[in-house]
Design goal:
alpha/beta; 8-stranded mixed sheet
């Protein structure tokens, strides 16, 4: 049986040089924060352990001080492997300063890899990441100069290219649930995220490591139904109790996030009327009845609120990579959770669905775009975000819609409430460049795969063609030359059918999208499999 021990005792189980894989997602969803605190405190008091390899599928933290930010110490951690550093900028700073070995790999690949590690396989074989910065021909996901070991390998099978994400031993798996019974069985009834906890526990426990489960409460044997147990006691070595654990960093507990209640539509708050809503609205116009879509972080996350306000969301299946299927995904720092969902899937299962082509449309953000339609969200300027689920999602979807402002840095632009835009001050930083700093999405590979790609900005809409980027819509009140073309640092073709963006986007009232939405014919593009595109 699993032993119930204190947080201090659990932290002492972690030895110098261990590989510690911590479960949970982003903004505190099922994150074992009390164990993170205990590990930080032990190192601060004793200087031990040292030289850890720290891993997670998802970037963990509140963008400021929680989660992995607490462990960003080069004496404590020598190597970090994660889906990203956007939630934990303290590790991004260490990587930029070359004080740790740093890898950012696709969230889905890391999540799926836990199953391969558990099964004793050599790694995850997948197409995900080909022709991006995680492809070893483009850097292999390394984010600091001292990072030299290749964790990703290019493999040829029957003249087709694949990537092998190599398995690595997990000495300590730290996971979180809601309840633990006397046999160490773990349930997750109050959690907003299931993750890959079963595979993670098996990956450690079955191969000489240990599994530590943080829970909110202990219950007697027999209290947990067999279908409610997500990690069996046979895979759990130690249990620690943290009665004050929050559902997410922002939300102490929401029964709707746990799937226990459903939220009336009137309680789903509309977005504030600003430029972000304008962009989210224009993106929502790409939806069609029955579409299965992913909503990424940033402006794209607001599409769920638009779909609810316009009465569309019941005719769609909105999803987020953490496992929410259906309903309305949560926004802001609770992103990754959801309400009124049809299902909360385990994270590896969700990515299987994405990788297999289950998404009709992916709505994602962009930080940089270049003349070939390549997109960078992973590293730009002095920021290392990593890819998160972006690569799995963007390479698996039939259609990809990138949303964001054309410029940034001091930008002040707003809808006029009548039918156009008012530009008070354009941004100082240009995002449309001759070449992106890091290749998170490969435009040529997408075009060869048969994907449709749109770029929706605050003032214009552009599409990716075989000859590059084409301008197809412009907002009223905007100068084509000074506000659009001169802010893009490469030549852009202008469609002979260039049209004005819908004036309803710029009014502070519902657009009335439902009637037109229901007349659309569902369209599902079949993706091609471009074999061995080595020339890209």
């Amino acid at each position: 049986m699993a032993q119930v021990i204190s947080l201090i005792e659990a932290a002492k189980l972690i030895r110098d040089g261990d590989t510690v894989f911590i479960g949970g997602s982003g903004g505190g969803h099922a994150v074992p924060e009390a164990m993170i605190d205990a590990l930080r405190d032990r190192h601060g008091e004793t200087g031990e352990p040292r030289g850890l390899t720290l891993a997670s599928s998802v970037s963990i933290g509140d963008w400021e001080s929680t989660g992995f930010n607490k462990l960003a110490n080069p004496r404590l951690v020598r190597r970090v492997i994660s889906g990203g550093f956007n939630n934990c900028p303290a590790f991004a700073a260490l990587a930029i300063a070359d004080e740790v070995e740093a890898y950012t790999l696709p969230q889905g690949a890391l999540s799926q890899l836990t199953r391969d590690i558990a099964a004793g396989r050599p790694g995850l074989l997948t197409r995900t990441g080909l022709h991006t910065f995680v492809d070893p021909r483009h850097g292999g996901g390394k984010q600091s100069k001292r990072t030299t070991e290749d964790l990703v390998k290019l493999i040829m099978i029957d003249d087709e290219e694949f990537l092998l994400y190599r398995s690595f031993p997990i000495d300590v798996a730290i996971i979180r649930g809601t309840s633990a019974d006397e046999r160490g069985n773990i349930s997750m009834e109050d959690e907003a995220f299931l993750g890959e906890n079963f595979s993670l526990a098996a990956a450690a426990h079955l191969h000489g490591g240990i599994t530590i489960a943080q829970v909110q409460r202990l219950v007697a044997e027999g209290n947990l139904g067999g279908k409610d147990v997500k990690i069996p006691g046979a895979l759990v070595d130690y249990v620690v109790v943290a009665p004050d654990q929050k559902q997410t960093y922002r939300t102490a507990y929401s029964p709707a996030f746990a799937g226990r209640t459903r939220v009336p539509d009137r309680e789903i708050q509309p977005l504030p009327f600003d430029i972000r809503k304008v962009v989210a609205r224009r993106a929502a116009m790409e939806l069609f009845p029955g579409a299965v879509v992913n909503l990424g972080f940033g402006i794209s996350n607001g599409i769920s609120s638009v779909a609810a306000e316009e009465g569309l969301y019941r005719d769609l299946t909105l999803t987020v990579e953490q496992g929410i299927i259906g309903g309305v995904p949560a926004g802001g720092k609770d992103a990754g959770a959801g309400v009124n969902f049809d299902m909360m899937a385990a994270q590896p299962d969700q990515f299987d669905f994405y990788d297999g082509g289950g998404l009709d449309i992916a709505f994602l953000s962009f930080a940089e775009v270049d003349q070939d339609g390549n997109v960078n969200v992973s590293r730009y300027g002095k920021s290392i975000n990593g890819p998160g689920g972006f690569i799995n999602i963007s390479q698996g979807a039939r259609k990809v819609v990138f949303s964001g402002t054309l410029t940034t840095g001091g930008l002040s632009i707003r809808p006029d409430g009548v039918g156009g835009l008012i530009m008070d001050r354009d941004g100082d930083v240009e995002k449309w460049l001759p070449q992106v700093q890091q290749l998170t999405f490969n435009g040529k590979f997408a075009h060869q795969s048969g994907q449709e790609v749109l770029f929706i900005t605050d003032r214009a809409v552009l599409s990716l063609t075989g000859d590059g980027v084409m301008l197809i819509e412009i907002a009223p009140g905007i100068s084509l030359d000074s506000d659009v073309l001169k802010r893009i640092r490469f030549p852009v073709r202008i469609s002979p059918r260039l049209k004005q963006m819908d004036i309803r986007l710029f009014r502070d009232e519902p657009m009335g999208l439902l009637a037109g939405f229901r007349t659309q014919v569902p369209y599902r593009r079949v993706l091609r499999n471009p074999k061995n595109r080595t020339a890209i």
